[in-house]
Design the sequence.
């Protein structure tokens, strides 16, 4: 595995669309571009994926370019029903998106 936790084949499978025909765009644990919960903003390419956490944390990555971004937050500190983190996620992810080709 060359020091990698997961094989290249497993990483590719995790980012492959697993929910065709089910009304979403999800991989194995990842939200893919075009899903209703896609919080990547507008600048990440179609090959990108994200995973979000309850407190507002998120991980964005693009396996094609190797770019990634991590957002560590505590959106629930002042209450659980604020609904403000999605815009923050998109702004942060757009700021750290891979350069356009």
Sequence:
């Amino acid at each position: 595995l060359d020091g990698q936790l997961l094989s290249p084949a497993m990483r590719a499978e995790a980012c492959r669309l697993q929910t065709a025909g089910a009304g979403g765009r999800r991989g194995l644990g990842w939200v893919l571009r075009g899903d209703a919960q896609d919080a990547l903003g507008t600048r990440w390419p179609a090959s990108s994926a994200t995973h979000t956490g309850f407190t507002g944390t998120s991980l964005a990555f693009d396996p094609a370019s190797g770019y990634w971004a991590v957002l560590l937050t505590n959106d629930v500190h002042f209450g659980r029903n604020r609904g403000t983190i999605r815009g923050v996620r998109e702004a942060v992810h757009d700021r750290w998106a891979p350069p356009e080709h």
Remarks:
- The mean pLDDT is 86.
- The longest strand covers residues 58-62.
- Helices lie at 8-14, 85-95.
